[in-house]
Amino acid sequence: KEDVEKIIFNAKFPPMGRRGGESNVRAAGFGVNGFSWSEYTKKSNEDTMIIPMDEDFEFTENIEEILSVDGIDAVNFGPVDYALSVGAEVGYKITDERVDYGYSRLRAVTKEKGIGIMAPVVPSTESDLRAAIDRGINMLILGNDMYHLNQGLGRIAKEVEKVK
Prior knowledge:
Blueprint: H1 2-11, H2 37-47, E1 53-54, H3 57-61, H4 63-66, E2 74-77, H5 79-86, H6 97-113, E3 116-120, H7 126-134, E4 139-141, H8 145-163
Parallel strand pairs: 1-2, 2-3, 3-4
Helix pairs in contact: 5-6
């Protein structure tokens, strides 16, 4: 809980936090064209999302306390790291009952509090996407740059092998 409070304190402008300000940045329009501190800080607080990561059983053990903090927009559930934390088989699909328990607790508490859930869907097949959405995940992570680069290079390598 204290970690999330510190994150919000440092990420948000008053009255939510105590983030420092600078008008000579892109987000503030470099302080020109009618710049307004009150508009800038209000919009920044609205636009800056707070998304703690649920990647271990300790998060689940403290979930009620952690999610009692005002200002959390979503929680990123990391099934690989969560599986590692409980000694389960590692994978993006939630198949181990210990990982499923962690996710199910997260889902129950976030639903009650109106907080979103972010999680990876790898591979990003239609059936896996539908399953994730049906499980209540409303912010889908569809791989990352290295995953997609590796997938693309793998397809190219297969095509090159056909030419040999």
